[in-house]
Amino acid sequence: MKNHRFSNKINQLLEVPREISGHDTKISIVGFDEMLIENYKGILEYEEFYIKIKTDLGNINISGFSLSLEQVTEDDILVKGKIERIDIERLINEEE
After folding, report:
1. Is the pLDDT of residue 57 over 50?
2. Domain for residue 2, yes or no?
3. Is residue 82 pLDDT above 50, yes or no?
4. Is 95 helix (H, G, I), strand (E, B) or coil?
């Protein structure tokens, strides 16, 4: 825990964005047909009409038509298709 606090202080001093320096999830949406999720944890469900992705924020539920996972790396995932709805099941942080 001490190393984590130390690295947070260094990242703040260097003004490194949180999504790069840590494990914060970043969601970028382009129109209604493209969504990039950075720092995700796993794919929980994958159908042509529904995708559920686990993140540190909680589970991201994406509903639509012709949904596909175009790019999947260890850290990032690109969802394409006709996105109609996005829901985030927020995790309750016990430390708050």
Report:
1. yes
2. no
3. yes
4. coil
Cβ atoms of residues 28 and 35 within 8 Å: yes
pLDDT tens profile 30-53? 999 999 999 999 999 999 999 999
- Token readout for 2 is 């001490």
Task: Note whether residue 7 is domain-resident.
Answer: no
d(CA 20, CA 38): 9
- Could you tell me which residues come within 8 angstroms of residue 59 by beta carbon, excluding any fewer than 6 positions away? 44, 52, 53, 88, 89
Domain assignment present for residue 55? The answer is: yes
Separation of CA 18 from chain center: 13
What phi and psi values does residue 85 have, to the nearest 5 degrees? -150, 140
